[in-house]
# Entry
Amino acid sequence: MKRHSSNTTLLAVVIAGVLFAIANYFEDEDRWQLTEPDRPAMNPARDSSLGGPVKTIETAGRCEAAEDAMLLAVENSRYCTTDDDCTLFDYGYPIQCMTSVSMREITALRLQYRDYEASCRFRVYYDCPTEGATRLAVCRNNQCTVELETIDSLRDETLDYLGIE
# Structure
């Protein structure tokens, strides 16, 4: 054997050690996790398989309480004396799509709805459809309500005028 074999063996051991250290450095899984700015990559209160918050009985209870408070606030905000006192409040679930409330309460309701969303991260939210009718906020019997204004009558008059049935 050659005399340089001990030097070659030493060099091979050093290279193996360096490669082992590099492999361990890159093996750390947290390094490769994508994180959102406001959420840490690993959190024991989160479901790591879905990346979302874990639903618990406590969070479900807070959500139900927030939903009940939101519905009560909307119901108590429907007071009016004229049509100008009312505005639409179409925020989707849990509020009905055809909802009208007092203009004086709209800011407080928007803030409460934001708190509701923070408490109910597990709810499915949806927007209210608009379709072919215009919703008008009106005051009836001192309570804000919604009336639909459709173009059906205009369409019928146009068809009659043109002699089309």
About this structure: Confidence is low (pLDDT under 50) at residues 36-51. Residues 80 and 142 are 5 Å apart (CA to CA).
